[in-house]
Amino acid sequence: MFTLFKRVLIGQPLKSKDLGEQKLNKTKALAILSSDALSSVAYGPEQILLVLMALGAVAYWLSIPIAIGILVLLVALVLSYRQIIFAYPHGGGAYVVSKENLGVNSGLLAGGALLVDYILTVAVSISAGTDAITSAFPSLHGYNVLIACLLVILITILNLRGLTESASVLAYPVYLFVAILFLTIAVGLYKVLTGQISPELHTSFGTPIAGLSLFLLLRAFASGSSALTGVEAISNAIPNFKSPAPNNAAKTLAAMGILLAILFSGIVFLAYYYGISPKVEETVVSQIASATFGRGVMYYIIQGITAMILVLAANTGYSAFPLLAVNLAKDKYIARMFTVRGDRLGYSNGILFLATASILLIIMFKGQTEHLIPLYAVGVFIPFTLAQTGMLVKWLREKPAGWRFKLTINAIGAAISFLVMMIFFITKFPQVWPVLIFLPLIVLFFRSIHKHYEDVGDQLRISSCEPHKPIEGNVFIIPVAGITHVVENTLNYAKSLHPDQIIAVYVAFDKESEKAFEEKWSHWQPDVRLVTLYSQYRSIIQPLTKFVDTVEYKAKESNFQVTVLIPQFIPKKQWHNALHNQSSLLIRAFLLYRRDLIVTTVPYHFKK
Amino acid sequence: MFTLFKRVLIGQPLKSKDLGEQKLNKTKALAILSSDALSSVAYGPEQILLVLMALGAVAYWLSIPIAIGILVLLVALVLSYRQIIFAYPHGGGAYVVSKENLGVNSGLLAGGALLVDYILTVAVSISAGTDAITSAFPSLHGYNVLIACLLVILITILNLRGLTESASVLAYPVYLFVAILFLTIAVGLYKVLTGQISPELHTSFGTPIAGLSLFLLLRAFASGSSALTGVEAISNAIPNFKSPAPNNAAKTLAAMGILLAILFSGIVFLAYYYGISPKVEETVVSQIASATFGRGVMYYIIQGITAMILVLAANTGYSAFPLLAVNLAKDKYIARMFTVRGDRLGYSNGILFLATASILLIIMFKGQTEHLIPLYAVGVFIPFTLAQTGMLVKWLREKPAGWRFKLTINAIGAAISFLVMMIFFITKFPQVWPVLIFLPLIVLFFRSIHKHYEDVGDQLRISSCEPHKPIEGNVFIIPVAGITHVVENTLNYAKSLHPDQIIAVYVAFDKESEKAFEEKWSHWQPDVRLVTLYSQYRSIIQPLTKFVDTVEYKAKESNFQVTVLIPQFIPKKQWHNALHNQSSLLIRAFLLYRRDLIVTTVPYHFKK
C-alpha cells in the first residue's frame, strides 16, 4: 500500500550511478541562484512602508533615504562575498568560513542560524507567494494558510522526485520576473515623467514629520534590509559553476547585485511616487502593478510571475537546507540520517524535515509574511556577520598580498552586518527574542550529538579493544505459555544447537495451574528442565526478568552466555495481532535492554 | 515515569488472592443495581415533553396518558424479567438467554447491542448529570462537554482503582435520591392540593390539540420509555445476591419497579401541573425543584443528588461492560485482552475501552442528552426483545409446569418490547438508523474474531500434530555493517554455538567500498565466510532478504535451519536511538515475517 503510494507520488527509485553533476553557465546560475535574493524585492519595500505607516502617509518620503542606505549595505555585502568566493572556491558558506576562522562554536552558530533560516526562507517565500495570489484573487483571502501549505507540499513532492537546482525550466520564471518588473518600472517612470501620475498622490521630499525618532528610522531600515536575504546563495554554490568557477561566480554575483539594486530602487520609488500605503489584503507590488497597467491581463501576468518566483525562492531553501545538513551530519553535528540519499537520489530526510518545519511555521504564524520576516532577517544577518568576521580573521592571520585592502572590505561588511543585526535586536526585540534562546540551544544540541557519535566511534573501533570475554558455554531459557506447536517448534530449534542447558520457564497466576502444568510437562518433555514461577500480581515480565537475572548472574561465573528464546506465533493477517496479548514482543523489549543477554525470536507461522 | 504516574493514579498492584466476592443483601442490591433505572426518571419525563413541545404547551396534558402507557410497559418488563431471574439463576442477561434459545447470531446481536448500550449508559448518564450541574450553575453552561469528559475520567480512575459494585458508599446516594424525590413529590402534591399552585399554569386534561397525529403520540411514548433503561440490570447480577439468590433478586426487582413507577408518575404529574416546558439550559427536574422549594438550599441539594445518582448510573455501565466483555471474550467473540485483570484486579482493558468510547460519544454529540437518548433507548429495546423472545422459545421447547402462563407473560413482554423498538425505528429513523448498520457489522466482526481464535486453537493443539520437520543442521547468517566490536561480539556468540556454517553478509553501495571491505575482512576474520552484495538502489533490506531467501531455499533441501543473527548496539540513552539508522530493527521486522527463519538479536551495550 504505502510502497505503491510512494511510487505514484515520487516515481521509481533511481540507481546510485545515475547521480551526475551538471555544471552551470553564468546565465543559468544567475537565474537559479538569484531567485531568493531577487524575489525579496516582492516584500522588502513593503516592510519599510509598514514601519513608516506608524507616522502616517506623510512619512513615506523617508523610504527614499532608507532605500539608499540599504543600497550601500548591498554594495558592502556583494564586495565582501566576492572575497569569500575567491578565498573559498570549494563553496564557502558561513558555516565553513566561521568554523575555520572563528572556531567550532561560531561555525555551529552560523550553521544553526542558516538551517533555521532556510526553513524561514521557505515559510516566508511561500507566504509571500500566497499573498501575491490572494492579492489577485481577493476571494481566496481566507484560505491563505491552506494555500501556503499546499504549495509547500507540492514543492516538497517535486523535490523528492528530484527536481534539482540545475533544471533549466527553473531559469525562465526568474528572467521573466526581472523583465516584467523592468517593464513595470519603465512604464511607471514614463507615466511619471509625462505627468500622467498626479504629483498630489505623494508628500513631497523633506516634508517635516511629527513623532519621527531614530528608533523608528532604524527599524524601517532593518525591515527593508530583508530585501537582501539570499545574497549569500552564490558563494555557497561555487563548485556548481563552469570553470573558472570563482571568476564566473564573482561575475554572477555582481550581475545579481546590479539587478537587485535596480529592481529595489524602482519599486521603492514608484511606491513613493504613487503614494501607495501597505494593505493587509493587497501587496505593494500588486498595487503598483494595478496603478501602472490597470487590473487587466498585464496585472494578472505580473502577479502570476511574482507568485511563481516566490515559490522558486522557496525552492532554493530546498536545495540549500539538505546540503548544509549533509555537511553538518558529515561533521557529526546532526543525525546521520541526513546523509542518506532517497529513492530518487535527493537527500529526502532533509527535504522532509524542511517541509514539516516550514509548514509548522506557516501554521503558527497563520501565513502572515510580516510576522515571519523579522525572524528571517535577523537569522540571515547573524551568519552574514560571522562570515565577514571570519574573513577578517583569515586576512589578519594569513596576510596575503594586498591583505589590507581585503581586510578593509570585510571589516566594513562585518561592521555593517553587525550593525543591522543589532538594529534588529534593538528595534524588533519583541519579535526576535526567540532567536536568542533557540540558537544557543541548537548549538548545545549539535555538540551533544557530536559527543555521542565520537563516543560510539571510540567504542566500535576494534583497535581500542578491551579484551573480549570468552564464551565457554551456552544456556538457553525458553518462556513457555502452554503445550503447543509454537513451543514445540522452539524446543526443537533449541535442541538442534546443543547448548549446555535448556530451561523452560512457565509463569503461573495461581497455584493449581502451576501444579497442573508441571504434571503435563513432565509427560510431554521429560528431558527438558521446567521452572515454574508463581506471579501473584498477574505480571509475566516481572518474575521472568527476575529469574533471567538470576540465571545470568550464575552463568557469568563460568563465562556462560545466556540466550532467551521466545516462541512467537505469527498470524496470517496483520489485524489478528490485535487479538493476541503480544507477550512475546513485551518480553523481548524488556529483555533486550538487560546487560549481556541475547534474545532469539523463534517464529511459528500460522497457515490460516 | 509512566509507572510512577500509574501508581499515584490507581495505587499499588493487588495480589490475585485478594480477589474476594462479597454477596449483596436486598437493601444494598436495590441501591446498587437500581441506580441506572431510577436515575432514568431524571431525563425520561423530559423526553416526553420535548416531543409534545412540537404541538405547543396545549399538548402537555398528553404526558399523563403516555406515562400510563409507559407504566404498563414497565409492569410487563418487570414480570418478564422476573421469569428470567428464576430461569437463569446464574445470571441471565440478554446475551446468554438469546444465545441459548435463539442461536449464536441472536446472542451476538444482543451482546453487541448491550456493549454499545453500556457505552451509551455512560455517555447519557454523565451528560444528564452534567445537565443537572449546569442547570444549578448556569454560568457553567458553555463547559458541558468538558465537565462531562472530566466526570468520565474521574469515574474511570475510581474504577481502575477498584471501586466495585459492592462498595457500600454507593448505596447512600441512591436512597437519598429516592427520599428527596419522594419529598419533592409529596411537597409538590401538598401544594397542589392546598391550591398553592395556580391551576392556570397547565391546560386542562382533554383540551383538544391541533395537529395531533398518531406518529407524534407514538414518538412521545417511545421517548418516554427511555425512563425504563436499566431495568435489566438485576437479572444480570443474580450471582451477587445472598442466597436464596433468585428469590431475593425477584423481590429486589419488584421493589425497584414500584419505586420507579412512583417516581416516574410523580414527576410527570408535577411537570404537567406546574405547566413546565423543557428548556435547553435547565432540566425539567430542576424546574420542578425550584418551583417547589425555590432556588434555596433544598434546590441545590436536589440538583447535587441528581447529578450524583446520574454519575452512579454511569458506574453501572462500568460494572456491566467489562463483565459482558469477559463473557464474550471467554466465548472467543472479542479479543482475549478483555479477560485480563489489571493491577487492581479490575478488568482494566474493558474499563479503558468503555471510557474512551463514551468520551468519544460525548464529544461527537457535544454532550446533548436528547440526541444520545434515542440511540440508547433503541439499543436497550433490542436486547429486551431478544431476551423475551428467547424465553418464549425456551418455554415452548421445555414446557415445564405452568408453562402456558409463563409463555403468556414473556410473549406479552416480547410483543411490547418489539413494538417499542419498532416505534423507535419508525418515529426516530433519522436518529437511530446507524444502529441498523453498526449492529450487523459488530456481529460480523465478532464472528470473524471467533473464526480466528478457533483456527489458532486448531493449529496450536499438539494432538492435531503435523509431523514436525527434523532440524539436521544450522546455518547462521550475520549481516555486518563494518569491522567493529558490535560485529565481533556477534561473531563470538555465533562461533560458541558451533553451527554448521556461518556466513557474514555485507551490503555495499558502491564497488570500491565492496572491494575494500572484502580486503579488510579477509585479514580480520579469515575463517568466516563473507558474502558481499552490491545494492544499486541504496537499500539494505532488499538485497539482504533476497540473499537470505536463497540460503533458506538451499538449506531446506538438507533440513538445515537458517538463523539470522543481527548485531545491534544499544546506546546508553534512549534519545540516542534517533541518531542511528535503526537498520537492525528494520531488518528484524522484515525477516521475521519470512517463512521458517529464526531471528536472533545480539545486543552490544554502549558504556557511554
Walk me through this protein's architecture.
- Chains A, B: This is APC family permease.
- Chains A, B: It is found in: Membrane.
- Two copies of one chain form a homodimer.
- Chain A is of the alpha/beta class and 608 residues long.
- Chain A has two domains: 22-453, Amino acid/polyamine transporter I (Up-down Bundle), CATH 1.20.1740; 473-605, Rossmann fold, CATH 3.40.50.
- Chain A has 21 helices and five strands.
- Chain A has a five-stranded parallel sheet, with helices on both faces.
- In chain A, helix 19 (511-524) links the parallel strand 2 (501-508) and strand 3.
- The radius of gyration of chain A is 33 Å and the shape is elongated.
- The model of chain A has no long low-confidence stretch (mean pLDDT 86).
- Chains A and B meet through helix 17, helix 18, strand 4 and strand 5 of A and helix 17, helix 18, strand 4 and strand 5 of B.
